Amino acid sequence: GLTAGIVGLPNVGKSTLFNAITQAGAESANYPFCTIDPNVGIVEVPDHRLNKLTELVQPKKTVPTVFEFTDIAGIVKGASKGEGLGNKFLSHIRQVDAICQVVRCFEDENITHVSGKVDPIADIETINLELILADLESVEKRIDRVAKLAKQKDKEAAYEHDILVRLKDAFEKDQPARTVEFTEEEMKVVRALHLLTIKPMLYVANVGEDDIIDPSGNEYVQMVKEFAAKDNAEVIVVCAKIEAEISELDDEEKKAFLEELGIEESGLDQLIRAAYHLLGLATYFTAGVQEVRAWTFRKGMKAPQCAGIIHTDFERGFIRAETVSYDDLLQNGSMTAAREAGKVRLEGKEYIMKDGDVVHFRFNV
Ligand code: GDP
User: Fold this and answer.
1) Mean pLDDT, residues 89-107
2) From the CB of 11, is ligand 1 less than 6 Å away?
3) Which residues 6+ apart lie within 8 Å of 254 measured at CB?
4) What is the mean pLDDT of residues 20-26?
5) How far is the CA of 112 from the centre of ligand 1 (A)?
6) Which domains does the chain show, CATH number per domain?
7) Average pLDDT, stretch 192-216?
8) What predicted TM-score, i.e. pTM, was given to this entire model?
């Protein structure tokens, strides 16, 4: 599955947040296919539609879809030059699909900051620079390889060379690849380079307990937001310490706790949803009396591929997908009523699944 890597300098609250993730973790019995790796935290994706469908269908069991976070330790200044666990760190980042960078935005005299003071932008720049330097090295190597061919009027090489030079220029100005504009065609070449700074980035501003209700007073958060806007990245605000406490509560207690604070959604739930969105993921549902279940697919996937997420046989023997949108189903109150209202569609092999589709796959065995 797709995964988001959690990175950050030492003492910014990474472990606290990752512990909250594993603590809140999904019941593994429901997800036997998931990785068993101490560095991977599996969380359920919060989705109010699943609760509604459960009320409607009254199934024996309800199963949310899950999302994986990977804890990536070991970033230090000089990582790209192999300092500390540098090389390992970079190879771990290479394997994730998006990066969640935890940034310290809380003051606490008792907790040492690696560079002496709280300075989120300097922290971000430290990490980003290591990623940019690693990418610069990859791009320079590649330029060496294609430059000669490009000069010999090899069209493809010239095309790639132009892209590489634009990337190199950006890196030399400390700009990540995700800020460079490319056409769809060019993106194919860019993707093949497996750059680190092309991955979607989410800054996780870790604020103190006092700031969680109204983070707008936290100047560090404002700084991170301004930086992210230029950096083509997103920002969410959490208080890792509070998230760690929330993760020990059951659903009822959690709800009461959040209500007391006047917060609608926990920071962790926001993080899960932001990461899910960042990766271009969407959810479809199956809704039978045995089980109502949410499934994750990548936007743009067709019905047979989506069926294959449940079982490979479903994809191989795919006939059609009986589909109703979540809104239509809810508006009509039952599958039968939705069918009578003509809202249930029979979709074929070319159908591109939509977020919120409630599906019944028909297949040959
Ligand atoms: P890591 O090195 O980035 O993994 O950082 P840790 O998660 O170990 O956190 C470093 C220290 O900061 C620990 O003592 C945490 O309890 C503390 N810490 C983490 N998040 C917060 C927070 O939101 N507020 C405060 N006051 N302390 C925090």
Assistant:
1) 92
2) yes
3) 246, 266
4) 83
5) 10
6) 3-46+62-114+199-278 (3.40.50.300), 130-191 (1.10.150.300), 300-363 (3.10.20.30)
7) 93
8) 0.89
